[in-house]
Design goal:
This protein folds into 2 domains: about 150 residues, Four Helix Bundle (Hemerythrin (Met), subunit A) (Up-down Bundle); about 90 residues, 2-Layer Sandwich (Nonspecific Lipid-transfer Protein, Chain A), CATH 3.30.1050. It has 10 helices and 6 strands, in the order H-H-H-H-H-E-E-H-H-H-E-E-E-H-E-H. The strands form 2 sheets. The chain has a 4-stranded mixed beta sheet. Strands 1-2 form a two-stranded antiparallel ribbon. The longest helix has 23 residues.
Length: about 270
């Protein structure tokens, strides 16, 4: 069994448990992520999982689906509008059930694939481990907006190791995606896991380092929080610039939330 796929499945189950507590009206509430509603976020996750499943089945099917999506966008539909239309605007409990079933099936398919498999995606091909990690990362990051909306604090766990990995490895991508020169060598990343373990990437460089909570690092690289709203220790110009715009996910350049915007002051344990 592929560990990253198992973690993706567990992340899916965790979000399902939260969504199962929502009332019907909650699904139409706007979150602090681009004012997307809960329906919008879960539809987005479901659409991503369907695209991932197409890549798993057949590269040609994946490219056809991408072309269909782009054709709709070229006609003027926004990402949210295109997704709603393609999914027949499924919402609420029906959406929850369909999204969860599809995501679990995808996790099982990824888990059964040979570990050297490479899969098509937006941008470069990805190995199946990183592919599964990307789905976990999307689920975790988009799910945070729903946790924040509902005022629920989630307990972090060491599944974050996968997201921290993709975060540390996309240092260069953050700048290449913006057509900017990389400002220097990749900073040393030293994180404290929820379990207390220490996770490290890149050569030790005391004058170019990001250190602190693994949870907060993952929040910054997924643009769930602004680095100013964390206690991360950021030393050196390359590290400082990176943390101000870090983006570990594919797609066009995105900006992190403004300082103070997505602090979850109302979270309850």
């Amino acid at each position: 069994m592929l560990p990253q796929a198992i973690d993706f499945r567990a992340e899916t189950d965790a979000l399902r448990d939260l969504l199962a507590t929502l009332g019907e009206a909650d699904w139409a509430r706007a979150t602090l992520f681009k004012a997307w509603t809960v329906n919008d976020i879960v539809q987005h996750l479901h659409a991503g999982d369907l695209m991932a499943a197409a890549s798993v089945r057949d590269p040609d099917e994946f490219y056809r689906l991408r072309a269909d999506i782009q054709a709709a966008r070229d006609k003027g539909l926004t990402r949210v509008e295109e997704t709603r239309q393609r999914l027949n605007n499924i919402e609420g409990q029906a959406l929850l059930e369909r999204w969860h079933a599809q995501a679990i099936d995808l996790a099982d398919r990824l888990s059964a694939m040979p570990p050297d498999t490479r899969l098509k995606w937006a941008g470069p091909d990805m190995g199946v481990r990183m592919f599964a990690t990307a789905r976990q990362m999307e689920t975790w990051a988009h799910g945070q907006a729903i946790y924040d909306l509902m005022g629920v604090a989630r307990t972090p766990n060491d599944r974050l190791r996968n997201i921290a990995e993709i975060g540390a490895r996309t240092y260069g991508w953050t700048f290449a995606n913006r057509k900017q020169a990389v400002p220097g060598p990749a900073p040393h990343v030293r994180l404290i896991a929820p379990s207390g373990a220490v996770w490290e990437w890149n050569d030790p460089t005391p004058d170019n380092i990001v250190s602190g909570s693994a949870l907060e690092f993952c929040q910054v690289v997924t643009q769930v929080r602004n680095v100013a709203d964390t206690l991360l220790n950021v030393v050196g110009e390359p590290a400082r610039i990176w943390m101000s715009i870090a983006q570990c996910f594919a797609g066009p350049p995105e900006s992190p939330p403004a300082p103070g915007l997505r602090i979850n002051r109302s979270a309850r344990a």
